[in-house]
Amino acid sequence: MNKQNPVVSPAEIYTPGMHILCDARSTEHALLLTYPKLRAFWEECVQRLGLQAIGGVWHNFPGGGFTGVICLTESHMSIHTWPEHGHFTFDVFLSNYRQVNDGKAQELYLSTLSFFNAESTQLKQVKR
Q1: Which of 43, 51, 84, 89 is deepest in the core (most CB within 10 A)?
Q2: Residue 100, domain member (yes or no)
Q3: CB atoms within 10 A of CB 1
């Protein structure tokens, strides 16, 4: 690198990504019981936003509730539900390695709340 005219390669530039962590409440009890509808919805969101899924794990709990994660080349999305309390927690983390994805992280957060007809009870957004 020339001190007079520094050249920085793309690999040397890092813009922190957006990690959104949310606790939420929903009266849509049926949506909190099992994962298939949310899984299909998140997969559609990933495709629509031009993200790349590389795997996922989902599990329905006996008696209701589920947990799931979708791994992305950009990072991940995960959820855990407690239908007996009308409560769920989820997070969305998208890195900004090749492009700024903050708007996409926000869209996934808002879309998930809308899917469950939910309101956030606790929200934390971390640039990391």
Answers
A1: 51
A2: yes
A3: 8
